[in-house]
Write a structure and sequence with these properties.
2 copies of one chain form a homodimer. Chain A is of the alpha+beta class. Chain A has 8 helices and 12 strands. In chain A, the strands form 3 sheets. A 7-stranded antiparallel β-sheet of chain A has the order 2-10-7-12-5-4-3. Chain A has a 3-stranded antiparallel β-sheet with strand order 6-11-8, with no helix packed on it. In chain A, strands 1-9 form a two-stranded antiparallel ribbon. The longest helix of chain A has 16 residues.
């Protein structure tokens, strides 16, 4: 590997900063080529996310839910890819599900999804990460506001902003069960955080993040500029697609209604991982995959 | 004081239980006498809460907000009535505000509110508790599901269910800023909790409650029977009135929008406090007042 210039320094200064994004949001040379309409592409570029209601039908959903339960039941206590809630022993997430489940492997390679992502990121992509977030009723704690890219850059060595995430709602996203919240337009800014990354940060950051967290003043600024917060109430089977740098989070879930979702990160094969820009050793494969082979649609 | 029979035992067994309420919800001999329509009274009896949108106008609201800020600014570190968030030093609640503020004293004795409460509880009432819940943006953590009556009975010696709470929204109750959630019909059941009450429980229960918390199975049962959860999105100045035994709570507030409210508990003068039924010493005056003089409308 050749040493790369750090285009997005973070966790280096004693003050947070906000700077303009240096990469395009839509990387395609011909963004009209693909399943998304020009209007959708333009909206994604402007707001940083898109919602596809009822992307999956009931039978596909039932299969994904069954597989979710199977992974829960088979979760091994010693498995580092099984993450528990910060205040209890309840499973919060299981990572690397596309390599642990043939069903999720196929879902991640769903031709409709791959085509959308390739249209936006301009060519072949690979899976950087996959996971089930269980977000169970009563126990599911919040995910505080964050840009995924900040972490992937600092802790995983993702050089540029050329990745996107997909969250598939396995149950209804209701206003009351801690739905995904996004700040429209936030992806156009890079928020550098304060604090130094400890070694093996992932061992607790996946339960509750405390470094790589944006400051409140900047969050208020982004919310004001983006004209608020989007918290789409999306029925089960819906798909939410968002840019790697869109500021997002979710509140805890105190209701009996689970808000489980399948979460997949797609990264361009032209943006593969280098050494982490924060200087720590790379995170394990289950959270930041280094198999850069392009996904083959299933 | 004569020893009273414990009509609602809790925190005594090793298993939770759910039993029918032994008291009426509407105590008036002539419930038609008062400001509430028969329809409203009937709905309160059935669902356990009522919402009055925009009960206060903008100028009244501005005064209450100003007083809220004044109490925040003047909060004394040594004052036990100032409660802080469980994970930070940020103020969560200031108690006993009707005795610390002439403005809140008048608000608590608002003739319209007193008339409504007297109609439902059948005669004169006094203030059992008052507080500002700040529920600030980013910092405001959840209030887990609970029946207030359970705590007031066990820890304060409130004999029967003849009390009601009023929450006045000082800012908008949005779907995303941790609005009050209630379980319709839950007030018709008494949920006995497990666990023993430690001495000086209030010193941490007001930050985060861990004893006097209903079990999850019972909560699911109540939600199912009550046909869901109500989370009314109410604009600033709205008033939510609920029975002392209505199961309620609120999620954390991760948004920049505060969800501050003025919270007042009215108890019938025919239901004054005895020794705590849990056997602990009474909680301090700031959380459970023992001035049983009827409120005089301001």
């Amino acid at each position: 590997m050749t040493a790369l210039i750090d285009a997005y320094p973070s966790r280096q200064g004693s003050r947070p900063s906000i700077t303009p994004r240096k990469d395009p949001v839509v990387h395609a040379t011909d963004p009209g080529r693909g399943p998304l309409s020009a209007d959708k592409v333009e909206r994604y570029a402007r707001e940083g996310f898109l919602i596809f209601e009822r992307f999956l039908d009931a039978s596909a959903l039932a299969v994904l839910r069954g597989e979710m339960d199977r992974l829960w039941d088979n979760a091994d206590r010693a498995d580092p890819a099984v993450i528990r809630e910060p205040e209890s022993d309840v499973i919060r997430s299981v990572f690397d599900v596309h390599r642990r489940s043939r069903i999720y492997d196929r879902m991640v390679r769903d031709p409709r999804i791959v085509a959308i992502i390739e249209q936006l990121l301009g060519g072949p992509v690979y899976a950087h990460q996959s996971r089930i977030n269980y977000k169970r009723g009563f126990d599911g704690k919040e995910f505080f506001w964050h840009s995924d890219f900040e972490t992937w850059h600092v802790e995983d060595g993702m050089p540029r902003m050329r990745a996107a995430s997909v969250s598939i709602a396995l149950f209804d996203n209701l206003p009351i069960n801690g739905p995904l919240m996004l700040i429209p337009g936030s992806h156009l800014h890079y928020v550098a955080c304060i604090g130094e990354t400890p070694e093996d940060h992932f061992k607790y950051s996946l339960r509750r993040q405390e470094v790589g967290v944006p400051d409140i003043e900047t969050l208020c600024h982004l919310v004001k500029e983006g004209d608020g917060i989007a918290a789409p109430a999306a029925p089960a089977g819906s798909l939410i697609l968002f840019d790697c740098n869109t500021m997002h989070g979710s509140s805890g879930n105190m209701t009996p209604y689970p808000r489980s979702n399948l979460f997949v990160v797609y990264n361009s094969v032209k943006n593969t991982l280098d050494a982490p820009f924060g200087g720590t050793k790379p995170r394990p494969e289950f959270v930041a995959g280094r198999d850069f082979n392009p996904l083959v649609p299933a």
